[in-house]
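Human:
If only I could read backbone structure tokens as easily as an amino acid sequence. I am handing you a single protein, as its sequence and its fold in token form. I hope you can help me see how the letters and the tokens relate. Thank you; the sequence and its tokens follow:
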Amino acid sequence: MLCDLKLGNVYMRVLSLKYGKSRAGGHFEVQFDDDTILTLDAELVVRFQLKVGFDVSANLRAEMEAEQERLTARRRMVRYLALRRKTRREALHYLERLGFSEAAIEYAMAAAAELKLVDDERFAESFQRTQQRVGKKGPRAISHELRMRGVDKELASKTVAESAKPENQRSAALIAGEKKAKALKSEEPRKARQKLQMFLMRKGYDGDIVAEVTRKLLGENDD
């Protein structure tokens, strides 16, 4: 390890470059003469033109470490979002939990946006379709879940606007409640109606729609 007193720089000499492979791809373990090892992507070793005997300043090493962190954050982000689409806030929290620096997170988020892996509007539309088709959920529940995932209030409201129309809620609630109503036929009428109403309310349909659909599926309340 060298020290330039005039410039105040500390230099570490590269003693060896050991190549290896992992799931992330090719990388080098760069060993310095101060007994430290820095793992760098192969592309960074090429970019910084590292070789045995090369003297690396403290500033250059810090730059290489920061660049490696940015690449790692980007790679983890792409892998995370490739499995299932997430909101911007969910993606951000994922990187924060992994302990990446603010600069690395900003770089990874920009890359994800450029690759169209993070798009709250597309996420909201896809989420709504799935929740309506599979979960048979109403607009209130879907809007609430979108906001819990980080979608802003205005976008969440816009996403469920069409499904929130009374005629659309009515047809969706009928489909959602039909199977439940059949299972309640053997119960005492009042309890059956209460259970169906609670079921549809939890699904996220408006109160007047729930009352109307309950009457249609289980008949009028004798009281």
